[in-house]
Design goal:
Largest sheet: 7 strands, antiparallel
Distance between the termini: 46 Å
Shape: globular
Helix content: 40-55%
Radius of gyration: 22 Å
Number of strands: 14
Length: 520
């Protein structure tokens, strides 16, 4: 069954203070759509600020793909209220446009022009757009307009001091990094529970498959949408945001040095496939380089070790400098039942699960074992609600019912919930546990089952537009809770000023800057 964490949980119950000060943040992506549900063809609105430099509102792959970023927060309710304020401000400044409430896009076809995100004339801004040009040419535009939610999480220094006996972050950085790598290995083994509970993309518009081959046994609804009856998150499948060529990179999560060297190796390894694209055509640059990864962020992974970077510092150099500071969970579909794409129950579950992943034993995994964990994920992604579905807890171990593994895990999570609730003097974590564990006895309670039922009744496009309209009206009329209009307006003006300062500070031509970047 799952690892025995009773000893670690007993320790945690004796040291509840070690969990005071958990830090978390959210990044939420959403497509801008027109009133009739089609992808917006307008540039990123100037009224929202400069996407290159705004603290809270930016863009991801395309001009029409918004991304909202919260500051780091120690309180779940405050975090989500602030995220909702960002949505409220944007809803007020989008004119007649709406925010698409689903992960998988609709009303889009391969021939539709999708403008890449633009970040001004600075070298760093042009590099960001060129990176997106490379993504488009490597993996297709449609894959890049799939939306998700990222959850950033870090444990307080007090946890590591109590658990590992370190004195401070600097001297204990290697031990802290080892602790987060343990978390990541357990996430690879058991993180399939996230799409099981919260996957919300069991169906796609048929236009999404236009010209693409698939062996998946899709069924078609009267509305024209196609779906898998027991699927949870097609976003995480090979149809969605994945890159099969990266499976050969051999990146592991046993030691921080190994992870960093694997990442750096991928940045420098030529790709025969991407060399065929070329670097330039008719005077237009097609990608940053022809290596397996253009930059480190191109590594598609369900979870990443992170450290806040300094100016001109790569993610791996930041990790080398200071070790792992936090982890980024990347497996969350947009929650269509929330106007902000995530809800409080999900955040509390993630806190519990990530704490458990840190406490549970996690034997080291070679590259093949990391790949092997993908089989469980794929099963849950494509048929997670199938009655009697079984999984391997470890590669090569006997199959066990998914429901039994899930309920056993929740037995541990509830003990963590009691500790967190005692620190907060409420029962919010326990309530989240009690609500979610029921999904293992009744898969119809999962997000994917609930959203599929609604999609079958209305169709994806119709349901998505209905929710977009409902959330637009809701957010435009709600009062702000944490931030206010004046603060947003001030940040909007400041972001444009910061962008102009960056543009004015460039001393190299873009060609020189790009050559320097690729040489680094």
């Amino acid at each position: 069954m799952i690892p025995d964490v009773s000893e670690a949980l007993t320790w945690l119950e004796a040291n509840p203070h070690a969990l005071k000060g958990i830090r978390r943040g959210v990044e939420r992506e959403t497509l801008r759509i027109s009133a009739d549900g089609h992808l917006a063809q307008t540039p990123h609105p100037e009224l929202l600020g400069a996407a290159l430099t705004h603290k809270w509102i930016t863009t991801d792959f395309a001009e029409a793909l918004l991304e909202f970023i919260t500051p780091v927060d120690e309180d779940v309710d405050h975090l989500l209220a602030l995220l909702r304020d960002i949505h409220r401000y944007v809803a007020r400044h989008l004119g007649d446009e709406r925010m698409w409430p689903l992960s998988m896009p609709c009303f889009i076809n391969q021939s539709q022009p999708i403008e890449l995100a633009q970040y001004g004339s600075s070298n760093v801004g042009r590099l960001k757009t060129l990176y997106r040009e490379g993504l488009k040419n490597r993996y297709s535009t449609l894959m890049q307009v799939i939306s998700g939610v990222h959850y950033n999480f870090s444990l307080p220094l007090a946890f590591w001091q109590a658990r590992l006996g370190i004195t401070d972050e600097a001297s204990g950085k290697d031990q802290i990094s080892d602790g987060y790598l343990r978390l990541i290995r357990n996430y690879y083994r058991f993180g399939w529970i996230i799409p099981y509970l919260f996957g919300a993309s069991p169906a796609i518009c048929s236009s999404f498959l236009a010209g693409r081959k698939t062996d998946l046994p899709f069924e078609q609804a009267k509305s024209g949408m196609i779906y898998l009856p027991f699927a949870t998150s097609l976003r995480l499948s090979d149809l969605g945001y994945t890159n099969k060529s990266q499976s050969e990179l051999g990146i592991t999560f046993n030691r921080i040095e190994e992870y960093i060297s694997g990442l750096k190796r991928a940045i420098k390894t030529p790709s025969a496939e991407f060399q065929q694209i070329g670097l330039e055509r008719e005077g237009k640059r097609l990608q940053i380089n022809t290596n397996v990864l253009q930059i480190e962020n191109e590594l598609y992974a369900p979870i990443r070790p992170k450290r806040v970077t300094r100016r001109d510092e790569t993610p791996s150099d930041a990790l080398t400098r200071g070790g792992i500071e936090y982890i980024e969970v990347r497996s969350l579909d947009i929650n269509p039942f929330s106007p902000i794409g995530i809800d409080e129950r999900q955040a509390r579950f993630l806190d519990l699960f990530l704490i458990w992943c840190t406490l549970a034993d996690a034997p080291q995994m070679n590259a093949q074992e990391v790949l092997c964990t993908r089989s469980n994920w794929n099963k849950v992604i494509l048929e997670g609600r199938k009655p009697g579905l079984t999984l391997e807890v470890d590669c090569g171990s006997p199959q066990q019912p998914l429901a039994d593994i899930g309920k056993s895990l929740f037995h541990d999570l509830r003990r963590v919930a009691v500790i967190l609730d005692s620190n907060n003097d409420n029962q919010q974590y326990q309530q989240a546990c009690d609500a979610l564990v029921a999904s293992f006895d009744d898969p119809e309670l999962t997000y994917s089952a609930r959203i599929l039922q609604a999609m079958q009744q209305q169709g994806i496009a119709e349901m998505g537009l209905m929710l977009a309209n409902e959330y637009r009206q809701m957010l435009r009329t709600e009062p702000f809770e944490v931030l206010n209009e004046e603060q947003f307006d001030k940040e909007q003006a400041s972001s444009w000023l910061r962008q102009r300062e960056i543009e004015a500070s460039d001393t190299l031509s873009f060609e020189q800057y790009l050559a320097q970047h690729n040489a680094g």
